[in-house]
Amino acid sequence: MSRSRTETIVRELQDVVDALGEPLRQSFQNMHGGYPEATLERFLRARDGDATKASKMIVDCLNWRVKNRIDNILAEPILPKEKFDAIRQTQLIGFCGFCKQGRPVFAIGVGNSTFDQASVDKYVQSHIQINEYRDRIILTEISTNKGRYVGTCLKILDMTSLSLSAISRLKTSTAIATIDDLNYPEKTDTYYIVNAPHVFSTCWKAVKPMLHERTKRKVQVLRGNGQEELLQVMDFETLPPFCKPGISSSNESDIFSPDHQFHVKLYNHIQQMALSTDRVLNGLSSEGSLNIEVPTSAEQSQHSDECEVVHGIGSVLPTLQASPNDSYQHQRDTLTSNIAGLQGKSSCLWLVLVLVAVYFMRGLW
Fold first, then answer.
1. Is the pLDDT of residue 31 over 70?
2. Which domains does the chain have, with CATH numbers?
3. Residue whose C-alpha is closest to residue 270's, from 133, 91, 97
4. What is the pLDDT of residues 234-247, one digit of tens each?
């Protein structure tokens, strides 16, 4: 699509937003952080330049934000503090710093995240708080400092300890993927996959043809810890610890620890925002203060190919557990058949992760 055509559609989308009620317009202002055109363009890219679909997506997103009080979520602490810490220790997300182009770099411990110390809605709440803090604090500050719009980030996915236990985390992963798909589109420039087992590259070759072209461009599977390639886009100090073999870390330098400065700042910010709205922290329930609405299966199938595939994986997984007595060729045929069954659907990173988990444990390659 030409630049002039994109600008025309973005103006049309702005007209749609301007015609909405005050609560939705206010939520859009909170969301765009001073860059409305760039924000609308993200939604347009997420719907492959289709103005009608992009318009519906942005209106649905704003309704979701208002209905679920997302604009106030940074004033909704997860209490007690021990619950927040437990979530941080089992939903491994860390902030590493900035790449050479000024984009925030986040690390995600895919293999070691367990999501087993809180309810799904608490993990969803925590994830959204990180999203909102990234967009409204980190990206706003870096854009102001650089004098230009910086609206995306890089993510480094650590596959260390990836195993079949990933299957049990599909419900939480689906909820988070759905939230990001529908309400935070096109916020990641590149996913760097590191510390993957050797089988990953083989599985990736089988899955890659099914991916949307945008996803193919965004996902890079690096060798080993990926240090050599990552140093081309970020300084050594920005690399997460799992990309620096032999370097030990304390709780303060462990990017996944609740004692890391990013999580300390995040928690303190949320507490301060809560106090500024006269909230009585001790009176808030640890499990009942906020409940985020996650789209239903029907809504996911209408809007999110990613979540549709995640659900498809759940039904396919039992057939993938080949008997140890099956021949090598039979196991390969099983993989080929099940992958073929997903053709025509735009896949996602979790498809790759789960397939790798299953086949790495079965030792097919």
1. yes
2. 3-67 (1.10.8), 74-365 (3.40.525.10)
3. 133
4. 999 999 999 998 76
pLDDT at 246: 75
**Mean predicted confidence (pLDDT) in 251-273:** 91
| Residue 236 CA from chain centroid, whole number | 24
- Which of 309, 310, 64, 302 minimizes the C-alpha distance to 174? 310
Which residues neighbour 197 within 8 Å (Cβ) at sequence distance 6 or greater? 159, 162, 356, 360
For the entire predicted model, the pTM comes to: 0.83
Q: Which two tokens stand for residue 13?
A: 């989308």
- Token pair of 269, please? 């910010």
CA distance 349 to 189: 14
Q: What is the number of other CB atoms lying within 10 angstroms of the CB of residue 168?
A: 11
| Lookup: tokens for 205 | 């070759």
- Strand 93-98 with 104-109, pairing: antiparallel
Cβ atoms of 163 and 111 closer than 8 Å:
yes
Q: How many angstroms separate the CA atoms of 212 and 344, rounded? A: 10
| Whether pLDDT at 99 is above 80 | yes
